[in-house]
Amino acid sequence: MAQRAFWKGYLKLSLVTCRVSMTPAVTESSKLRFHNINRQTGNRVVNRYIDAQTGEPVDDEDQVKGYARGEDDYVLIEDEELDDVALESTRTIDIESFVPQNSIGWIWYDSPHFLAPADKVSEEAFAVIREAMRKTDTGGIARLVLYRREHSVLLVPRENGMIVWTLRYGDEVRDADPFFGQAGEESSPARARTMMKKLVQARMRNWSPKLVQDPVEERLHEIIAMRSKKSKRSKPRAAPEPASKDNVIDIMEALRRSLASEKKGGARK
């Protein structure tokens, strides 16, 4: 079943315009969701906003955004004012410039979205823009309002469509140099590097989504299934042995044992 578009608008490059639809590329709909329950009654516990001073509940229509400029002093901003801040980019992705795709570090990428032509009439114009970026190995930079906030976005070709990445702002990414500077500049022995390379190669696998499955989620499903059948409570897993408090590590001995373990595992397979 095709994914339902959560955004529809226009893709524009100079005088070339086409209708497009977009949907998030990732989802958390399969994640388990828990409710807070009153243990005594078995009823759900609900959250309510209350006035910090009076303790009285506040209805939705009486709630407004506020920016703190001092103690108990707020600048109030209405929802309509937030919607009006960047109206020009709410329904049009206007590509302003292009950059080499490999020039943007992964740390600037935020959330991915699938972009496709919204109808048959728009397919040709969409394909022209997409293939131009593919042949030049570039991505398009634009601005777009999503989730009630204006974002800088990067458009890159992907199969018959495009990926629209929201990008983090400059003040959201910290400078890594002060942190990594604490790691030191000590170089490793050549023999240790060779042994580590063999260890990496022994664990090399082809990429598969199965490599990043959530074991906690799977275990929770098992527990819920057992509880639903009114089975006896399963025994908790034994706690792992605590790590040694000795911080001095014999790296060569650790590598020898790791490689030996990998060879035994390979033989068993």
Automatic annotation (TrEMBL):
The keyword DNA repair applies. The keyword Transcription regulation does not apply. Residues 227-236 have a biased composition (Basic residues). Residues 55-185 form the Ku domain. SUPFAM superfamilies: SPOC domain-like. Residues 227-247 are annotated as: Disordered. Keywords: DNA damage, DNA recombination, DNA repair, DNA-binding. Pfam families: Ku (PF02735). It comes from the Bacteria. With LigD forms a non-homologous end joining (NHEJ) DNA repair enzyme, which repairs dsDNA breaks with reduced fidelity. Binds linear dsDNA with 5'- and 3'- overhangs but not closed circular dsDNA nor ssDNA. Recruits and stimulates the ligase activity of LigD. Belongs to the prokaryotic Ku family. Homodimer. Interacts with LigD. PANTHER family: NON-HOMOLOGOUS END JOINING PROTEIN KU (PTHR41251). This is Non-homologous end joining protein Ku. It comes from Rhizobium wuzhouense.
